[in-house]
Amino acid sequence: MEIHYLKQMEANSSSSPTAPRPRVIAGPVIVGAGPSGLAAAACLKQRGVPSLILERSNCIASLWQLKTYDRLKLHLPKQFCELPLMPFLPHFPTYPDKRQFVQYLEAYAERFGIRPSFGEAVERAEYDEKLEMWRVKTAGAEYVCRWLIVATGENAEEVVPEMEGLREFGAGGVVHTSGYKSGDVYEGRRVLVVGCGNSGMEVCLDLCNHNASPSLVVRDTVHILPREMLGRSTFGLSMWLLKWLPINIVDRFLLISSWLLLGDTSRYGLHRPKVGPLELKSRSGKTPVLDVGTLDKIKSGDIKIRPGIKRLRYKSAEFVDGRVETYDAIILATGYKSNVPCWLKKSEMFCEKDGLPKRPFPNCWKGEYGLYAVGFTKRGLLGASIDAKNIAADIEGSWKETISQSKYSPSFMQKHL
Q1: CA distance readout (Å), 373 to 61, 233, 239, 335, 390
Q2: How confident is the model over 366-411, as pLDDT tens digits?
Q3: pLDDT tens, 243-294?
Q4: How far is CA 93 from CA 96, 239, 294, in A?
Q5: Residue 216 in contact with residue 193, Cβ under 8 Å?
Q6: Quick check: 32 and 384 in contact, CB under 8 A?
Q7: Which of 43, 92, 313, 379 could form a disulfide with 392 if both were Cys (CB 3.0 to 4.6 A apart)?
Q8: Separation between Cα atoms, residue 184 and residue 224, nearest integer Å
């Protein structure tokens, strides 16, 4: 059955001069060379399982290297952001900056001999029930594999919200944070930042530091916490407390401490959700803002808080409270989304609406027919590391058995392709 079907595939390929000859991959194919993909490849290699990473860009960690602003640092201490099997260098600061984190990732790839295939954007991946293998197609190649690991992550594509009059604002006047590098080009200009997450807050601070005049659109409630409290990182302290106390008690402690250290943020238009920060993160994946100095700028009036936008016009914005103000530029700090539904076909693992696994953490890493997901936990690099270890352990269990079977061996497959 398999031989007949493989010969049919070969006939189909040879009949079209442009159709690529399928290449059989002995181990898993990993889609995405970000931190999640690198972690999966390293954990697999440690267990003796080879893999192939397909990456659409020309570098590893393309989001970090190509689509982040210059002042970016890790929001959490480095011990919570290191990938499996390799810690950060001891001399790195507690919160490594963008350059240092990329340096760490490049050293990580070098240490484990990870060589992604760059410039290969996956256009379609689908499980072939007749062959009992995954078929992964890019613009110039087709790969056949027993296991497929989705590592494109939660931040694959920019989210650009629908706003009335967005195109009227002015050519070149609206940019997503993926295209923002530094506030130096906005010196002396009035800038409207849309989105009050960690990125929106930091962009506003960067604009202030470059003598721009930012306003921040806050449409929803938001938890703002100090990055550190009691001499420890807020995140690290929270994780330690959760070992001994229920989440609602830890949330109450965080809110009381934040009120003592930061004051009542609602006085400045920053209202807190009714649900505590850790509980909200667990339910929806919404991350609290860890303040690095932006709140002081809001208190001083250097950063102005504005409500939701009703509509945009040329170089101006009308807000839902009826106020109209002029701006030279708009920066969309509106985040990213998964693009998995665009290329992964007929999968029961991922939701078509948001491109995330249907099963919640910690059971979101394994799907059907050898399909896996790494980096979709809504728990950052720490969650991706947990996924990578689980996936490698699971694949190792069937790797030697599967590769010994004639119908799955690369030599058998390639011979009949």
Answers
A1: 17, 29, 24, 21, 10
A2: 999 999 999 999 888 999 999 999 999 999 988 877 766 655 555 5
A3: 999 999 999 999 999 999 999 999 999 999 999 999 998 888 889 999 999 9
A4: 5, 21, 21
A5: yes
A6: no
A7: 43
A8: 26
**CA 363, CA 64: separation in Å to the nearest integer?**
27
Structure tokens that stand for 214 in this block: 């930012």
Residues linked to residue 289 through DSSP beta bridges, in sequence order: 224
225/245 Cα distance (integer angstroms): 19
Q: Per-residue confidence at 7, pLDDT binned at 50, 70, 90? A: very low
Distance between CA atoms of 164 and 177, rounded to whole angstroms? 20
In whole angstroms, give the CA distance from residue 387 to residue 255: 30
Nearest-angstrom CA–CA distance, 191 and 247: 38
Q: For 218, what's the count of Cα atoms within 13 Å in the CB-facing half-sphere?
A: 26
Q: How far apart are CA 85 and CA 46, in angstroms?
A: 9
Q: What's the CA gap between 15 and 33, in Å, rounded?
A: 33
